[in-house]
Amino acid sequence: MNTQKAGRGRGSKRVLFDATRSSKRVVQAVKLGRPETVYQKVLSEAEQAEELSARQRGAVEVKRRRTQRKLDELEKTNYRDAAPDKPLLMTPVEGTQALSANLASILAARREGIADRERTVTHDLELQAAIEASGRTSSKKEHWTPAVRKILTTRRTFGSLISDAAEFPSMHAAPNYFTAQAPRASRSSTTMCSICGYWGTYGCVQCGERYCSRKCGTT
Questions:
Q1: Which biological process annotations from GO are given for this protein (predicted)?
Q2: Which site among 14, 111, 146, 147 is 20 to 30 Å from 81 CA-CA?
């Protein structure tokens, strides 16, 4: 009896050892409804942990590739935006003389650009004035002189016209814009409400504006 029990015990150990040698046999044992041993639980947990770590490594690799791709795109964009046609300050500077020469070249280029713009604007104004004048009187187009063209292209304001007129002596003989003045009014000046425009008989203590009634005064 004891030998049979021992034999059965040895056989069961051999069967257990043979059943747990690989994961395939573990799966077969689970499918057949056999009880899961501690070793099988540990093996399944190890497989799950390995699968989870593989997924994590894959996610990290995908994230790294995506970040690297974005960095490469930014590098290309920055290089294209930062590449000037005439790199003036990007050249190596040696000493104060090279720096002053570099700055002088930059200022000269800017002055030249401003002068070109001014010439372009003046030319456009001359063309516009010529087109407008030709639309009004096309017969006088051939009789233009440089002085007439300058007068047509120059825009004069009211202040400049008054200042130029004050230089002529004939302007001081008669009342002009500077000397003309109205006599004092015989009646007192009428005060109007600053809110509605009616007779402003009252004055605000805070701001001094005139108002006609309490409603306008509280506005």
A1: chromatin remodeling
A2: 111
